[in-house]
Amino acid sequence: MATVRTRRAREALTGLAFAAPAVAVFAVFMFWPLIQVFWISLQQTRGFGIAKWVGLQNYQEILSDKIFWTALWNTALYTAISVPLCLVAGLAAALLLNKRMPARGLIRAIFYLPAVISGVSSALIGAWLFNEDIGLVNRILDVVGLGPVPWQSEGVPALLSLVAISLWIGIGFNMVVYLAALQGIPREVFEAARCDGASRWATLRRITVPQLGPTTFFLIVIGIINSFQVFDIVYVMTGGGPGNSTTMLVTYAYSAGFEQRQQGYASAIGVVLYLIVLVMTIVQWRVNKRRDVA
Amino acid sequence: MTRYRLAFAITGAVAMLFPVYWMVVTALSSAADMKGPGLHLWPTSIRWENLTDPLSKFPYGMWAVNSVFIAVVAVVLTVVINLMAGYAFAKLRFPGRNVLFILIISTLMVPVQVVMVPQFHLVVDFGLIGSDWGVIVPRLAEAFGLFMARQFMMAIPDELIEAAQCDGSSQWRIFRTVVLPLCRPLIAVLVIFTFMWRWNEFAWPLIVLKDPESYTLQVGLLFLKNQYGQDYGSLMAMSLLSMIPMLVVFALFQRHFVEGMARSGIK
């Protein structure tokens, strides 16, 4: 018995030793900051001065801060347009590339390629393509006779140019996940449908899409969470402009914290963002659980 | 039908590739060419100054060195930490194991920007502001890699480890000689993804690095954007240069990228 106990004790010690480096970095750089952010959000810090305790004042300010609501609205709008488009385009690409064809691997790789290009480089391509005066998109629109679109000087076109780039980046991931899920649908289901004489469109609507339900749900949740954190492409491509028409929650938090140096206020925005993401995670968790039970 | 399908697929691929192609064209052309009358979709003359001019005016080489240093050090440390922790959480019993694992995994969904202010304070307190280490250290807490490592190692049969234990090997020895050799595909995925995240990272280095000499390539590109304004030739050339390591890694390990991504999607 004693040997069993010492062996267990030794295993516990080894286990702790192996986990220690990870636990240490998580404790210092994740768990502690996650507690601290609430604390800092209750303070007022301007510049490098000493922080002053202000209770919930930052949160009150958020409620009446027009730019905050604009940023929240922009983020929601960006998400509402970009996530479904990415989903549909990703599914279409997956269905297209699920069948055998020449150079299939290469074509799949090309669809995925933008996902490995940095957000900054993607944003620079976007800024260049959608440059209002000399960018390619407007030059082509000009040739076709659809006139120049104010991609940089008006809010809605600017937001749409961001969506276009987000689509370019995001299709590949959605495609890859859908392709993996398509492998998981039993072949017999499709064969049965074909025997019953179902058309392609009916098969897609009645069988493929429902079978992909859990995957679609996963991609929607991941898509929303990622869109709510969009920073690189916005910061580099539009800088939140024109005016604040493409300011997002995260770019606003960044500018509050590190440009205007109101770190208490930035932390309060961070807490709000945290709550939004938390709610979405809980929703996903509950839905998955219900599905597992059913 | 198959022919239509192939035509669609090729059209899609051309569209996806076009922005990169346009980068190359811009990087090779003069500004006048890009603005001038008549729309060309290919370079009409090659202008090497787009490449040489920014390289001589700005510390691009330093940025590349910084980027390489940060990415390489971060990959080595992160992968070692994740492999060790993955083994502990998958195969060793110790008190608090489940609680710790759930706490770590729950940070997967935490947006980086939520904790950027407290992390910034920590980096200031540690005296790491403006240094490569200030960029590297906070990002060692990488939950996704740890999760992948644990999932992979759970599939290693216990018998293999027990057999080695009976031979009297220490756990460290078992980890090195029995477990790690079985983890090659895992290590490949961890290295590739960590490299990509660190190489492409922008917001955090933007916060930590102050002096233009200390920038990474991504932060440097933003700096160049502000310098060059409407002259996109040099900017596209420098952006392309910064993409080369990632493109090479992607070309070599493309299969791992796709598999790793698919695995993250299925869970």
Uncertain segments of chain B of ≥5 residues (pLDDT<50)?
A: none
- Which strand order does the major sheet of chain A show? 1-2
The level 1 CATH classification of the largest domain in chain A is Mainly Alpha
Biggest interface, chains and residues, is: A-B, 93 and 86 residues
Helical amount of chain B: over 70%
CATH architecture annotation of the largest domain in chain A = Orthogonal Bundle
Helix content of chain A: over 70%
- How far from one another are the termini of chain B? 34 Å
Biggest sheet statistics of chain A: 2 strands, antiparallel
Low-confidence stretches of chain A: none
Task: Figure out the total of helices of chain B.
Answer: 14
Termini separation of chain A: 45 Å
Rg of chain A, alpha carbons: 24 Å
Mean pLDDT metric of chain A? 90
CATH superfamily of chain B: MetI-like
Might you state the CATH topology name of the largest domain in chain A? MetI-like fold
If you had to describe this structure to a student in words, what would you say it looks like?
The complex is a heterodimer of chains A (294) and B (267). Chain A has 294 residues and is mainly alpha-helical. Chain A is built from 13 helices and two strands. In chain A, strand 1 (43-44) and strand 2 form a beta hairpin. The model of chain A has no long low-confidence stretch (mean pLDDT 90). Chain B has helices spanning 2-28, 31-35, 49-57, 60-91, 97-106, 116-125, 132-136, 143-154, 158-166, 171-182, 184-200, 203-208, 217-228, 232-266. In chain B, helix 4 (60-91) packs across helix 8, helix 4 runs antiparallel to helix 11 (184-200) and helix 13 runs antiparallel to helix 14. In chain B, 43% of the residues are buried. The interface between A and B is large, with 93 and 86 residues.
